[in-house]
Fold:
Amino acid sequence: MNKSVNGLRLLFLGLFISSIIGFTSFLFLILEGFLVDVLWHGDHDISHDNTYIFVICIIGWIIMSSLKNRWGQDIPKTAHTSMEELKLNRTLNYNDIFRNMLSALLILILGAGVGPEATLLSIVISFSVWEADKLRYFYYNADSIKKLSFIEKLKCLLSSDDCLYRYDGNRAIPLKKKKMLVSFFIINGLISFIILMKMTGQPSFITKMGSSFWNRNELWLILPLVLYGILFGSIFNSMSKFIKKCFKKVKIPVILKTFIGSASIFIVAVLFPNLLFSGQHSLHLVTEIGINESFMVLFSLSAIKLIFLEICLNTGWTGGNIFPVVFSAILQGFAIARLFPGADTVFVVSVVSISIVMTIIKKPILSGLFVSLFFPIVLLPIEISIITLFTLFEIILKKSKIGKSSSIH
Structure:
């Protein structure tokens, strides 16, 4: 069959499958939001119903420990884990997509202080590898597939186990513009996801933190605020390493590990319910809390959120850290703003939070730009300047490390 015709067919197949991936991601988040509402925000007010919270946490603990004993401690996989496996083996075991989706969904709806982004991205990566294997099969069997009926073609396309060619260096699709096609499929899946979110009126992940009227007289605050953000983020990174070390040192059975995570969810649900989940559900309350609460309350809530995140991550309640870190960083920004009553509050919050997030996440451009979405556009020049400084510092640091290692050898 003509390569250009075959390539065109692959384009349409890829668009179809990538749209399905976008639709699946949409359904995952919709289902998560629906179940969270049913479980935690139903007809009854659970804010003072400790018995109800206790029952949820106990049931959650039993289910999670059972699933981990049955399917393995590494479920649900994160994007980092999936990428490492993909780099090592050039493929993934996408047969465990359902397991990852179910376990990730349970963790998110049961109140764990983690975000959906890491596990959802891992699921998307697995689906994308499945898509590549499916397209490879259709490419090399184009002539025989052409003879099948429409129903048989559809069955072959949607089958999860059949009509697949695993990655093989000798059987790669020889298309000149393959990288462009892959990028096109990713964009298509993302657009499908966004359109579905907009069409169904789903709330945005981004909540603006208010208006800013900063002026040049406040520019002197940038350096001390950035240094504070770096200090706070560095202390958290040290604490994170310490907690990981403690859990690695002590051999804790899965059933006890998941219990510790479940117990932490119960404590947070009873004492600090706004810190449950990733924080994305409570971001709209941050401005109100930030204006009304004292420095100590805000500082404590910010620190507790990060500790809660680390306990969840190290006890098998796996998920992403971006939203929880952003939530904590913004709270910390409001705490510091209380110490400068004469300064523009949103200006202070922006500088502190963006510095903390970039220090913890360690990807200045991506994390910095993401945090900037939560603040008014008038602060963008300040935020871009801070992101640029962090990026330059990271480049210098990497070069110095390379220089040291080469001088040792």
